[in-house]
């Protein structure tokens, strides 16, 4: 059914407004991703310094052997989700991958789920899992430190401050090739034994030493290691979330532009028909008047 000029004009105005909103959301997604990208790069430098601290500790201890935790019946899995929306199946895809990961674990092992984001909590529950009450995701870069600190505290509470004997996993969404994204589930604890492998020769004359007991020093290093790793994963997840939102907004913008082109062509056609009709009325009127004069 053909549409009137008024209907098409109203539709064109509505689509133009939607396009403006989509472009604004696209711009905000690009702007919001930049600070998290910078935060991820900054924490990488901190992790490099922390690696030097581990090297000093390992050299001072002569190769500290940590207790084996292969028989641990309890594991902790931290899942990073999104509460901001407009990023497709971001939560659902990661929740499905987490459910698959847990299903592959031995039956006797208990996996405690720490969840970031209420929407991720709902996605996990829909998959038959039982996460703890969700923690709020960061609303800005300043929230990265807050969330990472809360996660470290929760992990320490769950493992009764026995970080050395705890298995901790991280599940988050990271960037992949060609602008895509993929789920990442990696083991954070127990600690990689390479971190405690001492160097044969210390690179300077000042040999590393510390006044605290080795256990206190190890616990402090583990907390910093946890904090930095969680901070890095949170920043990466936020960058990926904004990238996913940006990609969807680009698709939406293209769709709106195509619809605007269709409406524009229809609008031009209706206007042309109206002009043609008016011209025909003038011509017919002129011919009729000429006939009467004859």
Could you characterize the architecture of this molecule?
The longest helix is centred in the last third of the chain and has 80 residues, at 214-293. This protein folds into two domains: 5-25 and 251-293; 27-200 and 208-248, Pyruvate Kinase, Chain: A, domain 1 (3-Layer(aba) Sandwich). The protein is elongated. With 294 residues, it is an alpha/beta fold. It has a four-stranded mixed sheet with strand order 2-1-3-4, with helices on both faces. The chain contains five helices and four strands; from the N terminus they run H-E-H-E-H-H-E-E-H.
List the defining traits of the structure above.
294 residues, alpha/beta, Pyruvate Kinase, Chain: A, domain 1, 5 helices, 4 strands
Rg, alpha carbons: 30 Å
CATH architecture of the largest domain: 3-Layer(aba) Sandwich
The outline comes out as: elongated
CATH topology name of the largest domain, in short, is: Pyruvate Kinase, Chain: A, domain 1
